[in-house]
Amino acid sequence: xxxxxxxxxxxxxxxxxxxxxxxxxxxxxxxxxxxxxxxxxxxxxxxxxxxxxxxxxxxxxxxxxxxxxxxxxxxxxxxxxxxxxxxxxxxxxxxxxxxxxxxxxxxxxxxxxxxxxxxxxxxxxxxxxxxxxxxxxxxxxxxxxxxxxxxxxxxxxxxxxxxxxxxxxxxxxxxxxxxxxxxxxxxxxxxxxxxxxxxxxxxxxxxxxxxxxxxxxx
Amino acid sequence: xxxxxxxxxxxxxxxxxxxxxxxxxxxxxxxxxxxxxxxxxxxxxxxxxxxxxxxxxxxxxxxxxxxxxxxxxxxxxxxxxxxxxxxxxxxxxxxxxxxxxxxxxxxxxxxxxxxxxxxxxxxxxxxxxxxxxxxxxxxxxxxxxxxxxxxxxxxxxxxxxx
Lengths: 218, 162
Prior knowledge:
heterodimer, A: alpha+beta, Chemotaxis protein chec, 8-stranded antiparallel beta sheet, B: alpha+beta, 3 helices
C-alpha cells in the first residue's frame, strides 16, 4: 500500500525517534561545550506545504536557517531554524567550542554551521538506529532571512505533491561550566524541519509498521 | 486598506488600496497597473508555467501560482473592473537564489519565472517598466494603487522603489 500521509501511529514512532535525536544532540552539545546541557521533550508535528511557514512563525520574521540535504535511503532536506534574537547566544556558544579569530564587529557564523552539522549527525543517527536505514548528509548551508523567503523556493519546487514536513521543536538550556562567564545559562529554541520525499515517507512509515510487528503491538 | 497576498495568491483591486506581499524568495511579485483608471493587480507567482503542475487541475483553483495563468487572470479581472486603456505597465520583484551554491550553475526556478514573465508580457504587448530581481536575499513588496509606486524592503538593506 502506498502511504502518502503519516498516521497518528507513525507520528508516535517519529516522536520517539526525535526524542532520542534530541537526547543525542544534547549529549553532543554537552561534550562540545564541556557544560551541562538540558533538553526539553521535543514537540513533533506533521505539517503540509500550505501550513509549514505559518507553523514556524511570522512570515516576515528574520531567522537563522541552516539547510542540510539528506541522502542515502532517505532523501530530503533538513532545516535547522533559530529565531534571529537567539543568534548572538548561539554564536557565543559556538565560539566557546571552536576558537576563531573574530572579525571586527562581525559575528562569525561559520561555527554555527559547524554546530548544525554536528546536530544533523545526531538526529540522523537516531533515525538510522531506529529504522535500520542508511542516511548521510551534505555540507551545511547557512542563511539569515525572512521565514517565507527561505521556504519560498523550496515550496515552489514541491508545491504540487502535498508534501509532508516533520517539524520538531526543541529547547536546549546550556549551563556554562566557567566561573568567568557573565551569562552562565543560555537557552535557545531550535526548530528542526525534516522534508522527506515521497519514497522516504514510505520508508519511515514502513519501518514504523515493521517495528510494531516485531514488538507485537496491536 | 492593506491587502496581504500570500504565496501562490494574487489580487486585483482599485485605488486607494495597498497590496502587500512578504518574503519573496525565488518567487516573483508580478504587478500589472493601469495608471489612467488606477486599477492594478499583484500576483505572487511560483512556477514558470502551468503545464507541468496541472495534475489536479490546480491551475484552475490556484490561477496565480504560475506565470501564464497569473497574467491571464489579472488581465481578466482588471477588464472586469473597468474598461482598460492602453496605459497598462508591468513591474516585477523577486527571483532571488536563497541557497546559492546548492543549485550549481543550472537555471533556478526564479530565473525560469522571470524569463517566462518577459516572454509572455512581450506577447501581450505590455511594457515592463521597472524591476528589482536577483541576489540571494528575500524581499517584501508594497504596491500603492493610487500612485502605482512599488516599495521594496529587504532585511539589512535600504528600502527601494521601483
